[in-house]
Fold:
Amino acid sequence: MNELNILVYAPDPMLLERMLQIISDEQGWCAEGTTDDERAIEMFHRRKNELVIIGGNVDSVTDVKLKKLFTRLDRHVSILNFYGGDDWYLRVQIRTIMKLDEDAPVVMDSPF
Structure:
């Protein structure tokens, strides 16, 4: 994976800005985000995202709506709920869900 495209939805503008800054500091990670759930859906349609982060205190109806819609539109998209924490914690969660720290499997053409 050359570039990791991430869509961030967080109703709290301060949390959204913080998450976008953390993501932009990582090489190869590209993010866009919004505080509006309908805008998040529009943004999802515009660009292929490998990861969607739903951040902060999101009401359960919006959370379920976004998850169902995004997975129907792209069954391979990963979705992460981020409730808060320090910068390191967000990076670790992204790396874990996207399996970025796993070693690539060794492929042998012929064992003989």
Observations:
- The CA atoms of residues 44 and 50 lie 10 Å apart.
